């Protein structure tokens, strides 16, 4: 069986089909029979939060996610709370220390709110771990089973950049709401009248920030250990601004569901935004999570109504005749994009619409992107300069330039 023509359980549950996924996240056909580390897709993004209860509320009210499962002292978990939230095929798990001696409390002190674990669905956990070990990866958790009355999940974990990990999950023999130890729970949060049913359908990509000189090491890690291939490359001048620059390369799994851009700071006359991230996060980590939507205008409006702040885009961006000519015809009138600060990029395959939130925690670290793809499999290369100039203005306001 080849995985490429198969929907994940999460996608099936979300009533997505292959055509929609080709458009939403750039899913491609892929024969994984010779892949030593086949990855089917995202399992979950597992967050650590200083207040998981309130972060779970934010994800429901501001991002329109739905609560589906819970762990905590009432279910026998004396260490932490965990809230599992869904939007389409996307699953977020927000964890926060309950016990002062929880390891999560230390993790949060070091890194603040952020993504600790980019968990991936794999058809064969043991095979992946054997290959990863042979390629020199650090195995954090050996393959093991977790079971309850809903069946058995097989799990393992390997280390990636900073203190980020990839838990590898095979839940094909499990019917429970998330993992043993979690119980099903539904939202008490009620959406506003007229709010979209959901604001995004899937995770598109997760970006990692790493130290100067480490980007190629991690690209090599994903190539060698996980069989990911290089998708696109942005180096130096492409995304340099007058003051600071970064370098970025993108790796993807075989079917392109999982895409990891990796950024490193480049030397500029001012401190790079990546340096600021590394300082406040306490080393490498997840910079942003891009959420695939089929209605970016509706999603932005709903999020703004709930108080989410997006990075502003200068009017000059929309008024630039060169840019107008390059963009060509897009689904949404440019005036509507301008009103919301939504960016447009076009390449030989099509175009995409995208917008970035401000950091969503206390530290100037992790943030969200909304992305609406129309054929383009890019990441907004043409917008990097416009975007980074906007980020740098924010950095200046925080006094970290
Ligand atoms: Fe992105």
TrEMBL record:
Quaternary structure (record): Homodimer.
Localization (cell): Cytoplasm; Endoplasmic reticulum membrane; Golgi apparatus membrane
Cofactor-binding details, from the entry: Binds 1 Fe cation per subunit.
Cited Gene3D superfamilies: 2,3-Dihydroxybiphenyl 1,2-Dioxygenase, domain 1 (3.10.180.10)
GO terms for cellular component: cytoplasm
Name of a matching Pfam family: Glyoxalase
Protein name according to UniProt: 4-hydroxyphenylpyruvate dioxygenase
Family statement: Belongs to the 4HPPD family.
One of the GO biological process terms: L-tyrosine catabolic process
Cofactor: Fe cation
Boundaries of every VOC domain copy: 41-171, 202-358
Gene Ontology MF annotations: 4-hydroxyphenylpyruvate dioxygenase activity; identical protein binding; metal ion binding
């Amino acid at each position: 069986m080849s995985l490429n023509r198969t929907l994940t359980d999460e996608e099936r549950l979300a009533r997505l089909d292959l055509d929609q996924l080709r458009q939403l996240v750039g899913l491609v056909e892929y024969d994984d029979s010779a892949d030593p580390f086949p990855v089917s897709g995202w399992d979950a993004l597992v967050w650590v939060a200083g207040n998981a209860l309130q972060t779970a509320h934010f994800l429901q009210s501001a991002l329109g996610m739905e609560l589906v499962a819970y762990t905590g002292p009432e279910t026998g978990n004396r260490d932490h709370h965990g809230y599992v939230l869904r939007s389409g095929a996307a699953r977020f798990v927000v964890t926060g220390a309950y016990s002062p001696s929880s390891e999560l409390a230390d993790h949060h002190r070091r890194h603040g709110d952020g993504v600790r674990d980019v968990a991936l669905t794999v058809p064969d956990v043991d095979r992946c771990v054997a290959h990863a070990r042979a390629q020199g990866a650090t195995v954090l958790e050996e393959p093991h089973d977790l079971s309850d009355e809903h069946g058995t999940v097989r799990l393992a974990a390997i280390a990636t950049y900073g203190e980020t990990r990839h838990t590898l999950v095979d839940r094909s023999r499990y019917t429970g709401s998330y993992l043993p130890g979690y119980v099903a729970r539904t939202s008490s949060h009620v959406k506003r009248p007229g709010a979209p049913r959901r604001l995004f359908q899937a995770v598109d990509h997760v970006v990692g920030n790493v130290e100067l000189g480490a980007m190629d090491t991690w690209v090599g890690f994903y190539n060698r250990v996980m069989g990911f291939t290089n998708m696109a490359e942005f180096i130096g001048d492409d995304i340099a601004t007058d003051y600071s620059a970064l370098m970025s390369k993108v790796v993807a799994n075989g079917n392109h569901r999982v895409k990891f851009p990796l950024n490193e700071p480049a030397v500029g006359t001012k401190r790079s935004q990546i340096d600021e991230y590394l300082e406040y996060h306490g080393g490498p980590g997840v910079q942003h999570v891009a959420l695939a939507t089929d209605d970016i205008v509706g999603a932005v409006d709903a999020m703004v109504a709930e108080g989410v702040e997006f990075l502003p885009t200068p009017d000059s961006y929309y008024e630039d005749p060169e840019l107008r000519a390059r963009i060509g015809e897009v689904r949404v009138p440019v005036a509507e994009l301008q009103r919301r600060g939504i960016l447009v990029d076009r390449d030989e395959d099509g175009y995409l619409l995208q917008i970035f939130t401000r950091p969503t925690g206390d530290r100037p670290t992790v943030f969200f992107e909304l992305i609406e793809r129309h054929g383009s499999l890019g990441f907004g290369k043409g917008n990097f300069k416009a975007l980074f100039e906007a980020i740098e203005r924010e950095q200046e306001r925080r006094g970290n330039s």
